[in-house]
Amino acid sequence: MKLNIDGLLVYFPYDYIYPEQYSYMLELKRTLDAKGHGVLEMPSGTGKTISLLSLIVAYQRAFPLEVTKLIYCSRTVPEIEKVVEELRKLMEFYAKETEEVNNFLALALSSRKNLCIHPEEFDAVGRQVPLPAGVYNLDDLKDLGRRKGWCPYYLARYSILHANIVVYSYHYLLDPKIADLVSKELAKKSVVVFDEAHNIGKDLQRLWLSGMSEPFLAFPEGLKKDFKMSKRLEKLLFSTDNVCIDSMSVNITRRTLDRCQNNVDTLQNTIQRIKETDAAKLREEYRRLVEGLKEANVARETDVYLANPVLPDEILKEAVPGSIRTAEHFVGFLRRFLEYLKSRLRVQHVVQESAPQFLKDIFDKVCIDRKPLRFCAERLQSLLRTLEITDISDFSAVTLISNFATLVSTYSQGFTIIIEPFEDRTPTIANPVLHFSCMDPSIAIKPVFQRFQSVIITSGTLSPVDIYPRILDFRPVTMASFTMTLARTCLCPLIVGRGNDQVALSSKFETREDFAVIRNYGNLLLEMSAVVPDGIVAFFTSYVYMENIVASWYEQGILENIQRNKLIFIETQDAAETSMALEKYQEACENGRGAILLSVARGKVSEGIDFVHHFGRAVIMFGVPYVYTQSRILKARLEYLRDQFQIRENDFLTFDAMRHAAQCVGRAIRGKTDYGLMIFADKRYARADKRGKLPRWIQEHINDGSLNLTVDEAVQLSKHFLRQMAQPFSQVDQLGLSLLTLEQLESPEMLKKIAQIAHQT
Amino acid sequence: MHFVSFTMASLSEEVLLVVKKVRQKKQDGTLYLMAERIAWGPEGKDRFTVSHSYSDIRCQKISPDGKAKVQLQLVLHTGESTTFHFANESTSRKDWEAAKELLQQLLPKFKKKANKELEEKNKMLQEDPVLFQLYKDLVVSQVISAEEFWANRLGGINNGESAACENKQEVGISGAFLADIRPQTDGCNGLRYNLTADIIESIFRTYPAVKQKYKENVPHNLTEKEFWTRFFQSHYFHRDRISTGTQDIFSECARQDEKGLKSLVTQGVKNPMVDLLSLEDKTLDEGYGISSALPSTSHASRTVKESSNFAIIKRFNHHSAMVLAAGSRKRDVPADQASETSSTDGNSRDSDFFQPPLKKVKLQEAIEYEDLQQENRPKTVALNLKKSDRYAHGPVPLQSQQYTTSQDIINSVNYIKHEMSNYKPNLTQVLSSAAASSAIAALSPGGVLMQQVAQQAINQMVPTEIQAELKHLYVAAGELLRHFWTCFPVNTAFLEEKVTKMKSNLERFQITKLRPFQEKIQRQYLSTNLTGHLECMLQAAYSKFHIWQTRRMMRKT
Question: Which residues from A are below 8 Å from B283, CB to CB?
């Protein structure tokens, strides 16, 4: 249908429209008109993506000079492909309606791993060939590449510069390393959309870690282990994720330092050799360094490129300081720095300090100034280039250290240093680690907000919406939250606070090991497995907690009884194994046997997998998924949030926990024809401060009667609900309520109603 | 040996036991116990005079131990009974013992089948009143024997049944079959496990490795009981506990399972939407070619408790996968075929090429908003009938009361004129004049096709009870005739016998059923024409029979 959105003609490729989609488009239009940033929350399954695409494409057509490009950032590969398919649908609709050839070029970009067609050969033919207009998904690019003998990856990378719409993952914009390579030259007049943006903090934290390594450098094995370590720590301690970005950490262990030592030795030897054979080369480098980084500065000032946050403005204006200008001096400098770090790792107790403290200490102890530290990363790059070292990956340890040096001396705020002599779990084994953690996600995203005209952050679960602008440090022109209009109450949130024996159910620390609670949780799952058809997904607060509960259910024979009703699949820490379990789970749901998936909030499943229709008729959230608060890094981050944004620690933790809970239970409802139970099995959900932090579209359906149910009561309500939902539900039932025809949409009273859908904040 | 000669009808039959010197009706003879029946033939004759299928036998009765006469009586379902007297002085008791034992083993196997058959017959009769009437008409009045009556039909049942067996949905395995083996303490520090055949079957189907072990070890190395005892004691069964000994024969099973699970995992998933590995667009390794292996959970650092928990989780995943696989294993073949046919649309089975279509489908599914679209089905227009009877009766010939305007008439006349003037006979394809004239004759008034059939319905002429009776007669005759005609072409001795029997059955039917009916009609002064068609059918059968018989005679002479 053709819509009139505030004076803009929008082609919408469906015959009907949800009222909230209309409302969403209105808000979006306003944001684009104002050339500002926006935060928009709308439940998943309400056609957010197609609304976004329809409006922005219409806008681009109407004002081709105002908005030249849409950069659509999503999170996962399937997500990216879905967006492109929706776009294709839209473009087909345009072609049909307008009957003119449109010259839109839209494409997806993914990593080489996903786009490569000749894994062995390097194939860069066709890098500069303009792509004809059309919509290209990853597979289309591969097809084309295969036919023409071009490398799809480079073709796509080249084509995004002149494409009208680019769909890719966050990394390409937020990871300084890749953004520098890929997105640097994207036009300023672009609209950037971050979909599923509730994960943005998390991604930033991941990206930062990788952003630490310079272009063309990979982590060597040892460091990768460190990286993995930190990931595992994250998993074990925080049960992953994302208290925004607390662990954008560099972890430096003794092993890192040893490798670094080797690197430095190699460097020295190489310099020695070159000095004997080709001293002119080193002199040339010296000259260049005196010239400084003027070029980069010019480029930045003329605003051709997206800024690289690893390269702070100050150092662009200066030349490399004399103390590290010659190669030998620099190597000596590195040695000193290294020795200092080694000495710091010889601690017996936990040390936490800020960047300025660290700088002061290093000045006092080994007389290293702040200034040369800041140039460390650039200087190393230059040296490696001069020495013409081919296998750069060997030098990643020293690269990491020099990056650390640059960052710690550049940002006096937003980072913290924690040195732990041992792991918390194994206090007897000395394993000192230096965590250098980023506290401030806005550092990475800042260039994006600064450069691009409009940045839209959108997701199904952003509540409360106002926290994002504060954390990410930007000023949006619109902030709105939309609810899902429903013709029937297709979601049924229940808060189960008691067992049948009146034992209070909670996952809080004190009652974690309580058998009565575990048994009651088991009973809840058992009873539900008998009542709910097809698939049930259950989420636990952490992996360790799930393991323990599963073990004690097994001992108590509860799992055996559940098996009488459904098959049981359990998420493990191994992604491949979990994928298999997931597929089997879906298979069991498909063939009618029914299955239960036990999973972990903040785990991979909770973040990337939808359980539409019969794949998830009920979601049970066992406990409140608080992040593990004993971690020092998390504590540091909470402190930072408190000091910087006046966000109280408890508020933040609750906000985070409820967002994850909502995220988990929201996995079951993906659309208005879908239905599902949402069972919150913890009495703490009944409290107003917790409940109030759930997204509005869930909150609305929690009535006072379902706040503190026993297991039996919940089962009764579920039965009733499921029976009602199983009745046939057709389009006609929705029409006029949650689904509109064009005529209905244009009626004045409906327009008035729609105006109320957007929940302005 | 001489009995081989008279196993003519049973070349393929396995003789399980031969007992000589068994008397039946005071006649000496030999008793044979075969795979499916028991038979007795008199001494010196090469024919069985008694032969009972096991399924016909209701029970065996035996003479008390101390009695001088060692006898065995078989009671059939029909109520008849046959008594065998074991007359060999020296070994009579032993023979009797052996026969009894064997029968004891055999009868239950067939009993089920027999009962099932009986049940089936009963059910059929109850469900189908026509058949029941037929049964009454033919069997109860002894036109044909019950066996003959069912021979054909049960064949249908059996065939149907076996076909159903083929198509029958494979019964899946309960996910909780291991839970059903509830161990019970037996009071003296032991555990009792109750195993049923079903559970064993489930175990075998779910864990082929155990079946393999069973085949290898039972009964050569272990008795069945020992095998299962070891199974329950094994580390394999209690996967969460830590292994106690390496002697465990099931440790290999565990390894195999592990391997199976690994291969399942490495196979990866077909549905790209659930593939967690390729979910993330990792760019960390971009351009460097370093595959980012996921952090494997290190087993070394796990505590005992953790690793047992881990084992439980693994086990549940594996168990569920195996149960699911066992349920669908049988269906693999057709599923494969299906995918084969689906892959003919230009996609080779090459994994790389094969994936996109599935992916495309899944993607399309994922972006579908079914309620936003017009329903996809082609719109059906509701039939608006002004006169529904006209719809029911089809087109009716144009009646003269329909008016045509004079203009229409003139036009059509002109049209016909025009047609006629342009008419060119297609002479190569005309009918022969004889055929044409006979066709004309048939279509002229009074001709064969234009006979004014007295459209007086039979239901107005004949009282209802006669009608009902006639119906029964038709059904019965039809049944008999069906039996008769199925004998043709007569190419076996059995069919020869049957056709002769059927002929006599038909004659008997004509005499005992049809004649009285005719007489009855005559008595009521109704048109005897009612049975004309029946007679006709019977006559046709007779003449067929005669032709066949004369031919046979000719061939014989």
Answer: 111, 169, 171-172, 175, 178, 210
